[in-house]
């Protein structure tokens, strides 16, 4: 019989059917029809890609070899679904709110969008996934070969068939897996096709099981007897292996890229998980129902040494039931193809997003990140990735030779992919988990998995026996299958225990020791508290009662006029039954836009969310609001700064104005003073000259006396004019200094003799000549003028009975300090600040000075680079003159 | 009949010139050079006329005049005010303060004598 030809035809027909289903589903989804495509049933069935060819064929083989242990592979996911569906729900919610495209994306996103982590997970997934794909290809080949043995034509050639199968699967994955770019747009075609395949494989396995129980064994009773008689039926539970396998399969169920793809990425509705929570375990139960009977009957019927992995095919064949065998083949084929397609899709997303695109973008210098051709680049990257992954699987299959038992490869892959678990679960439930922790944990687990499981399993060529026996470099404690001296364990249990334990420990320790970045903290909070603040994906919905609240809020923001107008308009547009519009999504969107014009987009979103969406204000919303507030704050602080600047300017202007007014007043005051000082002596001169002119019979004494007065007053006028001119020259800064060198002592000598000349020297001068041997280089005449002024002031104003002026000089820190202190009553404190002002005569003007002397002294000292000040509290009037010893600095 | 003038002026030469002029006119002249106690001196001297300088040590002539006019019996005492500052504002201030005659230094002797005569004539007439 031409079984093989028929088989190939059936296969091709089946593949065409799958293409058709996928195509139709995509078309329906695109047209918005086909709600059943997003039903919980389809979702549950799509989850069953967990059952690959390994499960389809391998479970029976496993049962035949190890008894009931195969159940563990079903128990793990069942336990997850039944007892941890809330954890899955969180995973799905996170995946949807974060628009996650793959498990690598999820891990990366959780830990501060770290691409390093994404690359690690991607590599791990590819390493774990490639042998797994090879395994599926192998299963197809093996099952083909069974039929080929029975086929006389000998047309079948193993190698080429695998190649064409791989190529066909790649084309399928490319066609239906990379139609849309946004991973958030789900692949309805693929999901529907694999759902169909799930039905086919379940149906095929059940058909074989029914045939075995009722067709071969003769009913349930005889079947149970056979099972009891067989070794398989005995509960021979190795607690370590069972625990490990249950745990592994549970972990793999969560972590496998293809499981993540169908469970999280393709999930259309969180509620589907509720159905899947009971329906998927039921599916697994049905899948496992006939495993033991098939294995038992297979062991009984088939000759010694036949491959128990293929009992599902060979038992019907041996009974001459070719059509059942063919159905069984299609079931296995379904298992293999659906797994390969989804795995290739999931891995290609990871490879293109986390390996290819970053590299491509970096070569574009970032310019490509906004240009339109990125879309094509991404799609191309995905397509090439799928082809490469399929090629890897194909070559792995060719290189490995397909000898190893199917189940063991599957378990090794499970152990590898499980290394993601600590980072994944930790990321979902522990806010303290950090990027460093995840990276360290993953690396530790990954390395241990390779060292203790992957490499030892690849044979002597990769890892020499000497290493297995004695450890690397003879270090016994590093033996791959007896790490740290723990011997006698099952290699799988040993590897899983060490890799996951150290992975978890490293993850926790590094997380505790490292400090998360702000983005990590934020993402951590979003992941861990995803249920607290994720927005319902359906968008805004609300009830009419909320319209009133919205109205009140809008009035506050827009003002009542515009708000009422807007609401009125919206209500009319809705049909105008009430004055308030229904809070339809469209209305809320328009309202949000309206409000965002006033308060910023994020705030508007958050405000509407508060009213309509309950507590749906997410951390992101709050951050955005904070950003807006920060901008406002920034703006207002800018305004504040401006207004402060303005008021500062105004104050400066006011001050300048005050100063100008003061200067003007000072000028007026000065002119008035000058006028007074000029008019006073002129009055005397005029009065006495008129007296002398008009009065007859003035005595000679009177004439002499009045002439002397006129003369004195004329001198006084001259002095005043001299002083005024002097002061004006000094103040204008146009004075030229006539520098010369002399000692302080001789300058003082000249000043004293000049000041006391012509008057009765009743003022005694006390000096300490040795201290005056200070050489000075300055304008000697100007300095002398200051000294003369001070000495004559003392002479004029010292009111002591025996007036004494003490002149003392010191050299203090590069300055010469000369104090002039008399023994009079001094200057009253309230007048001390005034003495250097022009026309500031203190007390009675008995000496007839114009009051410009000290003002001139101050100007001179300023020109000479020194200063003159009044020294309070010295008993009498005391003035201090300071002068820098500039010549010393010049000499040095 | 004794006519008494009180001359309050801190410039000794000016005081001497005016004193010389007025004595020759038959006035009894008292002089004072301080502003601070001028009111008391005026009250004590009970003069027929006061010649008051503006810029005095201790208290300005303007203030003395204002205080003087507030005192009983002093409203009509002739006060001739002399100032060296010569600003129109001073004249206004003096008139507001109740000055009888205001003169800016330097003045001619004749002006002073005329003013004194006028003031005295007005005072005796009224």
UniProtKB/TrEMBL annotation, chain A:
Pfam families: HATPase_c, HisKA
Record EC number: 2.7.13.3
SMART domains reported for this sequence: HATPase_c, HisKA
Catalytic reaction annotation: ATP + protein L-histidine = ADP + protein N-phospho-L-histidine
Residue ranges that the Swiss-Prot or TrEMBL entry lists as coiled coil: 636-666
InterPro entries given in the database record: HATPase_C_sf, HATPase_dom, His_kinase_dom, HisK_dim/P_dom, HisK_dim/P_sf, Na/Glc_symporter_sf, Na/solute_symporter, Sensor_HK_Regulatory
Keywords assigned: Coiled coil, Kinase, Membrane, Phosphoprotein, Transferase, Transmembrane, Transmembrane helix, Two-component regulatory system
GO cellular component: membrane
Record-given protein name: histidine kinase
Species whose genome carries this gene: Ruegeria atlantica
Gene from which the chain derives: kdpD
UniProtKB/TrEMBL annotation, chain B:
Keyword Phosphoprotein: yes
GO biological process, one term: phosphorelay signal transduction system
InterPro entries, per database record: Bact_response_regulator, CheY-like_superfamily, Sig_transdc_resp-reg_receiver
Response regulatory domain mapped to chain residues: 4-120
Residues recorded with modification 4-aspartylphosphate: 53
Keywords from the UniProt entry: DNA-binding, Phosphoprotein, Transcription, Transcription regulation, Two-component regulatory system
Keyword Transmembrane helix: no
Molecular function via GO: DNA binding
SUPFAM superfamilies reported in the protein's UniProt record: CheY-like
Pfam families linked to this entry: Response_reg (PF00072)
CDD domains (UniProt xref): REC_OmpR
Transmembrane segments: none
Classification via PANTHER family: RESPONSE REGULATORY DOMAIN-CONTAINING PROTEIN (PTHR44591:SF3), STRESS RESPONSE REGULATOR PROTEIN 1 (PTHR44591)
Name used for this protein in its record: Transcriptional regulatory protein WalR
Origin species: Ruegeria atlantica
Protein encoded by which gene: walR
